[in-house]
Amino acid sequence: MILKNANILDLKTGTVQTGMDIAITGDTITAIGVELHSDDKDYRDMSHRLVTPTFTNGHTHLGMAMMRGYGDDFALQTWLETKIWPFEAKLTSEDIYWASKLSLLENLYSGVGTIVDMYDSVGYVVQAGRELGMKGLYGKGVMDLSGDGDKKLQRFVKDYTTYGNANQRVILAPHSVYTCSESFLKDCLELGTTYGGVLHTHVLETEKEKEDFETAHGMSVVDYFGELGYLDVPLVAAHCVHMTERDINTVKGCPFIPVHNPVSNLKLGSGVAPVGRWLGEGIDFLFGTDSVASNNNQNLIKELQVGTLVAKNAWGPETIGSLDMLRRAFDFGDVLGFNHGGVDVGKKADLICFDLESLHFTPANSLLSALTYSADIGDITDVLIDGEYKVKDRESCFDDEQVRYEVSTRTRRILNEV
Length: 418
Ligand SMILES: [Zn+2]
Description:
Blueprint: E1 2-10, E2 15-25, E3 28-33, E4 43-45, E5 49-53, E6 55-60, H1 76-88, H2 93-109, E7 112-119, H3 122-132, E8 135-142, H4 149-163, E9 168-174, H5 182-194, E10 199-203, H6 207-217, H7 221-228, E11 235-239, H8 245-251, E12 256-260, H9 262-267, H10 275-280, E13 286-287, H11 300-315, H12 322-329, E14 351-355, H13 367-374, E15 380-385, E16 388-392, E17 395-396, H14 400-417
InterPro entries: Amidohydro-rel, Metal-dep_hydrolase_composite, Metal_Hydrolase, MTA/SAH_deaminase
Domain Amidohydrolase-related: 50-388
Protein name: Amidohydrolase
């Protein structure tokens, strides 16, 4: 396949190359150049398109799609205990499959090709991901509040063996320090490094979490993770809103991947993550949406834009630059190890095409600026993952109507039960 005459965003330099042909063989970009010759008849003219890598969504709970708009105006703990957990208790595995599919489609239509998820019935989430071809670290979310931690860990090993593969990697995701005991966290670390190799958790989402933990343990959550050994392994850490300067120095140089979840943090009134300091220390963070219950959608473009604005507000307009933020949104540093995050020869053909003839890209003073501040979902014409079209000429390659029907009817059933 050849994408002809494309405008390519080069994330190494922040420049745009025009009139370039992109050759894709199988799942990989195999050549980029001017007027590439090929016998390949499968080509499309991309003269008025900007081609970028797909976005990476570093933290979500795909299976929560049915809880969109269910209890919007609560603080985190009350919201979890009175609304979310009782609703989740009614979800069947099939409900989670359909909810995940809906969330994945939303991700896809905002240009996301890779996700990091945390949810209980990981097999059903992976099934949805595999059918749509969405890559990711599919985390089995676990906690041991009800004392059945051992059973959950056994189940994780089974899920890892049964459902994991190279593109849908099953990992272990202990929920947080306030829902997991110390001995359970130790077991999670041992199992999670043996199976999956990366762990995913929530870190310092709220001021309350920080204060309660420090009162009870006499140390910071980050130091605690360090003591347990969590800072020696790749750890995708959602939120990290209340990291202190000391915490940032502690994680510097560790395989610690913070996730900036600005919309969810704003909605729950949790604050703004220290993005300016992460950038200052050269830390490769990711953007994440969190679930639709606390966001309320899966739109990485919105996350990039809001996340950049709140960071500018907190750290100053000159500290936060478009290129730095775009690199994180695209996982330019390849912190997840999927060999994506750049339109380069040898990289996977995970690509978004933006319509440069849209109003949001006019005039074309700066395409970096347009992507960061004015682009919208409607400007996306094509999304490819592993060289396969998932969205083509603004048309979905999937049956959205069936997904909508299943999620709507199943949600009505649960609302009658709770
Ligand atoms: Zn979360």
